[in-house]
Amino acid sequence: MTSGTTSVKGVLYKSATGTPVEGAIVMVAEGSYEHPDIAAQSDEQGAFYLPDLRVPGTYTLLINYSNESKRLTVNITKDSVLKIPL
Amino acid sequence: MVLNDHLMDLYCTHLLIQVACDGAYTDTYDCCYSPAASALHYNNQKNEFMKPKTFSETLRSPKNGNDKEPMAATAPNPSLIENLPGQSYMGGESDTETEIEHVEGFKITKPGEADKEVYNKLNTESESEYFSSTLEEAGTEVTEEEGEGAFLRDAFFASYPELYERSLSEVIIGTDDRVRISPTTSFPWRAICSLRITAQNGSRFLGTGWLVAPRTVITAGHCVYMHAQGGWPKSIEVIPGLNDAQRPYGSCVGTSFRSVSGWVNDKKREYDYGCIILPRDCRPGDKTGVFGFAVKDNPYLLSAYLNLSGYPGDKGGNQQWFMARKAKSVAPRVIYYEIDTMGGQSGSPVWVKVGNARYAVGIHTNGLITGNSATRIVQPVFNNIQAWKNLGM
């Protein structure tokens, strides 16, 4: 598998209803590689983008939403799309 | 006191002369006139709440940001740690004459052009030549209403009495934890801005920036040019001194951006810096004061305490958080440190405090468990920031 950087797309949705979660803040807390220290915000479709991540790699994401937070570790490849229930 | 342009010019000039000519600083400051520095590099090319990343001394050293020169590590102490309000803690030309084929979509930066300015528009700024005779640019601090007297110096030194004497000689050791800045209405905190970025494709991001002129906000290159999101953003809302719901200096929406070829065309980490030029009718720096910036050598950076403050996403993105530590290592164009950061702090100032003067020496851009890092302000970066400052006067 070739390495490089990619902008990873993710989608946040409520696990109970399947509706998208807007306004959540998503960031890389830890990662295999150096990453931009920018935070992404999910849109009305629950979509967000984490730019310039070196792939393949393992990253721990931190998601802040409605006074709650969720942490998860994901393996990211060039074509990854993250679908994350909250 | 709100300085008008003329007064601010005079003030800056005075500070520059004072610093540049004061013999007491000659050991740590490059006070000499530099013909190279005076050549302005400017062109008109269009174109749980979890704990933050923390570190251990046992971890391996970070990668060098530039393979051409080795990183340096260690060093005396010239700088002060910031006082916190209400806190107890306070490349050369080719030898061959070759050309690059013109292929649509292919761009390459010629040697020596990585710091060449690139921008999205040129409609609201007055361009004028500006020549540098120093590698320090003093900031300005407008009258303090609350002052930094709110800093609980006594409380800090009650805990660390052994540091008191050393602090007087500009040496203070920090702690491991980030500290919230509240209120944010004193300098330098009010000159640090939360950024609400709307990318060209509509996606949204949070970042941080800092004022160097009434209308110029310095930040990371990846905050003003997002390769995978359509390039230049649609807009960035700049909120100086944001403190939860409070916006003590209002906000401005910027649509005029600057970065450099090394970032825009080549996406090189070492050139990850840029700026926002705010509209003419929005001049927050008149009220907040502005950061100075400077080029410092390796020994200085390795001995100095680096201050970093910004708007981390793990705290909701509406609060300013600060931390200070010494640099872990330096590369020709990158500074590595063990200052905890989180997403949203991209673009934060990394500065040294010397007396009452504050000089940014880096622009925070990247996170990594073995060392977060900033784009280092070296001479070409300094020259660009100075030119951008001039645009925002």
What does this protein structure show overall?
The complex is a heterodimer of chains A (86) and B (393). In chain A, strands 4-2-6-7 form a four-stranded antiparallel β-sheet, with no helix packed on it. A three-stranded mixed β-sheet of chain A has the order 5-1-8, with no helix packed on it. The mean pLDDT of chain A is 93. With 86 residues, chain A is mainly beta. The radius of gyration of chain A is 12 Å and the shape is globular. Chain A contains no helices and eight strands. Chain A has strands at 4-13, 25-31, 35-36, 39-41, 47-55, 57-65, 68-76, 81-85. Chain A has a single domain (4-85), classed as Immunoglobulins (Immunoglobulin-like). The termini of chain A are far apart. Helix content of chain B is 16%, strand content 24%. Chain B contains nine helices and 17 strands. Chain B has a single domain (5-90, 107-391), classed as Thrombin, subunit H (Beta Barrel), CATH 2.40.10. An eight-stranded antiparallel β-sheet of chain B has the order 1-9-10-6-5-4-7-8. A six-stranded antiparallel beta barrel of chain B has the order 12-13-14-17-16-15. Chain B is α+β, with helices and mostly antiparallel strands and 393 residues long. The chains are: A mainly beta (86), B alpha+beta (393). At the A-B interface, β1, β2, β3, β4 and β5 of A face β5 and β16 of B.
Tell me the total number of β-strands of chain B: 17
Structural class of the helix and strand makeup of chain B? Answer: alpha+beta
Ends apart, CA distance between termini of chain B? 17 Å
Instruction: Assess the beta-strand content of chain A as a share of residues.
Output: over 45%
The average pLDDT of chain B is: 72
CATH homology-level superfamily of chain A: Immunoglobulins
Q: Reading side by side through the largest sheet of chain A, how are the strands ordered?
A: 4-2-6-7
Morphology call of chain B: globular
Helical amount among residues of chain B, as a percent range? 10-25%
The most extensive contact between chains is:
A-B, 29 and 43 residues
